[in-house]
Design brief:
alpha/beta; eight-stranded parallel β-sheet; six-stranded antiparallel β-sheet; 34% helix; globular; binds (4S)-2,6-dioxohexahydropyrimidine-4-carboxylic acid; binds zinc ion
Length: 428
């Protein structure tokens, strides 16, 4: 297949370490076909999918059901296994079954999975650490959150800002600090999901400086919105953790620039319009679709000169590949080295419209946002899954499960690290 890419740029396909594709259990919100089609349309070639489905991905049986559902995938995917209070006995078999990483809900969110005690977390970290799989944390402290929310609701606060007020950054700071100590004790690799505040950067930086293998991500909505979004959008902007004040947003940009925050992920969390636009913000589901809008939104920041293209590639592809161990390996194809490519037009303009996204999530706080920079083709392991802004429907089922590469000797891994770091972009 011949491709004329004159004037376009070849970037490594984005690796989104944080998506919720809802199947099994909540397919009215999304499923593996619509979720991965959305990824393909967004220049995303690998996703890591979260375990708060029904059943949650905490047992070998639930993992099999998820892998069955994922057979429809257009793009490659890593499956997150759940680390919870009551499934420690299943962790080893989840690893054998092929999970790419683990997710631990320290705070409560969609799916109502109870957060594990610190004791259970410690035990889970001990079990997982020798296998090297990274443990990603929804780092919010459930007990503090529950107390604050009860107080605000009792006070009759159902204005949108009550949601922001219910989650002061201390909720996240406490959780990041505690998880980092557990990682330090056990040698587990950890990852801080959806960093929303400047306050979390100090414990993250401190843990890195102590040699903890800890990475962190933030999301486009924390980089592009601030507290004024509540007055404009009401319950639509509700997300866990919340979009915060402008000074936090500015701190996150600094965290990206100085390397404290390693990567950009989306927390793609689709819900229906009915579930988002409700009179009482406490009854609105949290989150929104995101996997398809990340690249256009961030390339727009590149066009605006707020981010270099090299930094974008590092944040969207190189850092997640390294953090989750997606190295080239002999005899097998893994992302990062096997023609997982987004071909982008940095000058092409567009407008974000939820109705035109491939995701079933039909509402986004970025509705009407003008963007500059669009992926025009997406290739997964050398095959087009999106071509000329059209989904290649014949590639349904092309996506493969990925997992951390463990077996390579250290010098080979170091070399792979260097070549990943050397990847930037090619102008044609
Ligand atoms: O806003 C959110 N939505 N935050 C989460 O942590 C979960 C997610 C979801 O699954 O809806
Ligand atoms: Zn979360
Ligand atoms: Zn999430």
């Amino acid at each position: 297949e011949h491709l004329n890419a004159t004037g376009l740029h070849l970037l490594p396909g984005a690796i989104d370490a944080h998506v919720h594709f809802r199947e099994p259990g909540y397919t009215h919100k999304e499923d593996w076909e619509t979720g991965t089609a959305s990824a393909a349309m967004g220049g995303v070639t690998t996703v890591f999918e979260m375990p708060n489905t029904n059943p949650p991905t905490g047992t070998p049986d639930a993992l099999r059901r998820k892998l069955d559902a994922a057979e429809k995938a257009y793009v490659d995917f890593g499956i997150y296994g759940l680390l919870a209070e009551d499934n420690l006995a299943h962790l080893e078999s989840l690893i054998e079954g092929g999970v790419a990483a683990f997710k631990c809900f320290m705070g409560n969110t969609f799916g109502n999975l109870p957060s594990p005690s610190t004791g259970a977390m410690l035990e889970g970290f001990e079990i997982i650490a020798p296998h090297g799989l990274r443990i990603s944390l929804h780092a919010e402290t459930a007990s503090i959150m529950a107390h604050r929310q009860t107080r605000l609701r009792a006070a009759g606060r159902s204005d949108p800002l009550a949601h922001l007020a219910s989650r002061p950054a201390i909720v996240a700071v406490e959780a990041v600090s505690r998880a980092a100590v557990l990682a330090e004790w056990t040698g587990a690799r950890i990852h801080v999901l959806h960093i929303s505040s400047g306050d979390e950067l100090a414990p993250l930086r401190a843990a890195k400086d102590r040699g903890v293998d800890i990475t962190g991500e933030t999301c486009p909505h924390y980089l592009l919105f601030d507290e004024h979004a509540y007055a404009r959008m009401g319950s639509l902007i509700r997300v866990n953790p919340p979009v915060r004040e402008l000074h936090h947003q500015q701190a996150l940009w600094r965290g990206l620039a100085d390397g404290t925050i390693d990567m950009i992920a989306t927390d793609h969390a689709p819900h229906t319009t009915d579930e988002k636009l409700v009179p009482d913000i406490w009854n609105a589901d949290c989150g929104f679709t995101g996997v398809e809008t990340q690249m256009p939104l961030m390339l727009t920041q590149v066009a605006a000169g707020r981010l270099s293209l090299c930094d974008y590639v590092r944040l969207s592809a190189v850092a997640p590949a390294r953090a989750f161990g997606l190295y080239p390996r002999k005899g097998a194809l893994v992302p990062g080295a096997d023609a997982d490519i987004a071909v982008v037009d940095l000058a092409r303009r567009g407008v974000i419209e939820a109705a035109r996204l491939a995701s079933r999530g039909n509402i986004t706080p970025f509705e009407g946002t003008e963007v500059t920079g669009l992926p025009v083709h997406t290739l997964v392991r050398g095959a087009f899954v999106m071509r000329d802004r059209q989904l290649v429907t014949a590639r349904k089922g092309h996506g493969r499960s990925v997992r951390r590469v463990q077996s390579m000797p250290e010098p080979v891994l170091r070399h792979a690290d260097q070549s990943l770091a050397a990847v930037t972009s090619v102008r044609l």
